[in-house]
Amino acid sequence: MFIGHFAPAFAAGAISPESPRLGTLFVAAQLVDWAFFLFVLVGIEEMRIVPGITAMNPLDLHYMPYTHSLAGTAVFALVFGVIVWRMSRNAVAGVWAGLVTLSHWLTDLLVHRPDLTLAGGPDRFGLGLWDRPLIAIPLELAMTLLAFVWYIRATKGPVGPPLVLIGAMLLLQTISWFAPEPTVMSVWLPITALVAFAILTMLATWVGRTRWHKRQTGLAVASARG
């Protein structure tokens, strides 16, 4: 799951005028993957390349108890939610940030092979849709595009920035799906992922600064959010 993780971010931005701005929601949506790839770089968590381990990618995510256990994700969600609440002085914004962060584990559950845990224990979970590309690809596209349209319809602002964002998302997802797969593990794999996250987060921040919820009026439009 890549751009599908951002569907809850778009949805949160569409549902509530008190949700954080889109850039913050994009950070929330991929927060545990930011942490995971950083942890891989410093040796706290581990991944390796095993060609054919799933039909859609060769990633063996064999040790990630801190970021991709449900308990670990919940801790990230709680901490990030509190940070957003304190910085925005808006408890509702903090709740939305936490919920979007927590959604990461649930959306991963759809596509991962059984490599997710509840609290880092031996029991592993994952519905394995990465082995069903004819289901996984349309599902991820539908999740993302429907949530994006919902966000656009619920907000006001120029159409150009969100079109650039969704175009970049689709381009990066296409590369992820169809570019030649890596055959050996190197530091460039997590670095490339972090660069992709950074690009999309910067674009989402731009979009969030140019749009406001249709239920916001007057001074509420200019109020500080996360």
TrEMBL record:
Coiled coil: none annotated. It comes from the Bacteria. The chain crosses the membrane at residues 25-44, 64-85, 92-112, 132-152, 159-179, 185-207. Keywords: Membrane, Transmembrane, Transmembrane helix. This is Metal-dependent hydrolase.
